[in-house]
Write a structure and sequence with these properties.
This protein is mainly alpha-helical. The protein has helices at about 1-25, 30-40, 60-85, 90-110, 115-135, 140-165, 165-185, 190-200, 205-230, 235-240, 240-255, 265-285. The protein contains twelve helices and no strands. Helix 1 crosses helix 11 and helix 3 runs antiparallel to helix 4 (about 90-110). The longest helix has 27 residues, at about 60-85.
Length: about 290
């Protein structure tokens, strides 16, 4: 059951990164591609893994790893498109719900992984918990579906790379796909223009905070990926509701200091979020039965 504790740790670290993201994106997000590119290019740090057992594992392994990384880049792009039309909290919860569903469906077809009765019920409670923590927005539903689909595909193929190799090779080759797909987009003048304009207009303080935040997120995702290697990818992803529970708590604690990370709390919203956290708690406890 180590994967559960690793997932909890990862989601707590990612909750911190999410709150910082919420601060960075509190103003409008005019260039979703540039933001996704900035996130992806930092994954070039995966080259430090080369001395630790990275090997060429064949064309099929490389292709699937590359598709996983590419799918992650596409998912980020559509996530930031959703954020542009709404806000970071609403868009992320919409995408998380759909990602959990797509991850399970794709894992059944690609990995042949099926959940037993108990874990299946836990999965349902965890996904319901995510739903109650946010709200579905029709105006971003198209982008949310695409982001959820590509996040699900990316995670399932990542799990495939772990099944047929080890942690180091799975991380390295999928990150190559992530960075490679973003660099390929530079052949398009519009993409280069978005990145150039973003760099010119970004304050130095925001740039530093962005890099620091992505380092924090990187630690969170590495821990999460290790949990995926050890556990069931559908259940690990369904535990994403725990992250939003942590975000809710952090927002309550730091909301008065940093108003742009505060949650809009009414009695109705509070009841809904507490209900969501309760569903997540029930689903979490069922994993231990």
């Amino acid at each position: 059951m180590l994967w559960i504790y690793l997932a909890l740790t990862a989601y707590f670290v990612n909750a911190i990164a999410f709150v910082i993201d919420k601060h960075l994106l509190s103003s409008s997000l005019p260039r979703p591609f540039a933001y996704a590119f900035g996130v992806s290019i930092l994954s070039i740090l995966a080259v430090v893994l080369i001395p630790f057992g990275v090997a060429w594992l064949g064309v099929q392994y490389f292709f699937i790893s590359f598709v996983s990384g590419t799918a992650f880049f596409i998912a980020l792009f559509f996530l930031y498109k959703s954020i542009k039309l709404s806000d970071v909290s609403v868009a992320s919860i919409n995408v998380a719900t759909l990602s959990a569903i797509f991850t399970y469906v794709l894992s059944v077809f690609i990995l042949k992984e099926k959940l037993g009765t108990n874990n299946g019920l836990a999965f349902v409670f965890l996904v319901l918990g995510i739903l109650f923590l946010g709200m579905i927005r029709r105006d971003i539903f198209r982008y949310s579906i695409l982001a959820g689909l590509f996040f699900g595909l990316s995670l399932v193929l990542l799990k495939w790379t772990f099944n047929y190799s080890d942690f180091v090779n799975g991380i390295f080759w999928t990150r190559i796909g992530f960075v490679g797909s973003s660099l390929f987009m530079l052949v398009f003048p519009r993409a280069r223009g978005e990145i150039s304009n973003s760099l010119k207009n970004a304050p130095q303080s925001s740039l530093f905070l962005f890099i620091l935040n992505k380092i924090i997120a990187g630690v969170g995702f590495l821990t999460l990926y290790y949990a995926i290697q050890l556990g069931n990818v559908s259940l690990v992803n369904a535990l994403l509701g725990v992250q939003f529970s942590f975000v809710f708590i952090l927002a309550l604690i730091f909301g008065k200091i940093f108003p742009d990370v505060a949650e809009n709390i009414t009695r109705k919203i509070l009841i809904k979020k507490l209900l969501g956290i309760s569903f997540i708690g029930v689903g979490f406890l069922m994993l231990f039965r």
